[in-house]
Amino acid sequence: MADAQAEMLRTLHDEYGAALWAFALRGTRGDAAAAEDVVQETLLRAWRHIDSLDAENGSPRAWLYAVAHRVMIDGWRRSARVREVVESDVPDQPAPDSIDRLLDGWLVEEALDRLSTDHRAVLLECYYRGLSTRAAADRLGIPEGTVKSRTHYALRALRLVLAEMGVTS
Questions:
Q1: Distance separating alpha carbons of residues 46 and 117, to the nearest angstrom
Q2: Residue 8 has pLDDT above 90, yes or no
Q3: CATH topology for the 3-79 domain
Q4: Would you state the pLDDT for residue 137?
């Protein structure tokens, strides 16, 4: 590996290693060894694609988080493989896969944490608690028009944060 590539990999590790590990720790339900494996595999993939992660493409953060997310999903799928299936054990209706929903929830939670307090509050009231504009305005102590405006700009900001994290629509 060339010196510049090695230096870039060290920089990626120094800048994003701890944040990736924290992200992976949540995704592995507190399993520190598995989180370290996720970070190691993510950085290994970054090393394999180091030429595409140069400064011209902007921050590699979104790429790294997307790769870490996929590594965790691959790990869950590997651990969930069934070695033997008995026909009588197979349910008529398949059970929904909650792993993707869980990881998506963590991504949304992290994205919401990056929003301003006002934007986060209005989204929590209107979308998560299901309050009407009027009820949210009363609860937050602001006019209804402000709730509508903040909701509009909060959704735009949330889309941008999710895009930075590598989530595509």
A1: 33
A2: no
A3: Rna Polymerase Sigma Factor; Chain: A (1.10.1740)
A4: 96
What CATH number matches the domain at 99-164, 3.40.190.10, 3.30.360.10, 1.10.3720.10, 1.10.10.10? 1.10.10.10
Compute the average pLDDT of residues 142-156.
Answer: 96
pLDDT at residue 85 in the model: 56
Which structure tokens are listed for 55?
A: 């400064």
The span from the CA of 157 to the CA of 154, in Å, is 5
Instruction: Round the average pLDDT of the chain to a whole number and report it.
Output: 84
- 16 closest CA partner among 47, 42, 49, 48: 42
82 and 30 in contact (C-beta within 8 Å)? no
Q: Where are the domains of the chain?
A: 3-79, 99-164
- CB within 8 A of 109, min separation 6: which ones? none
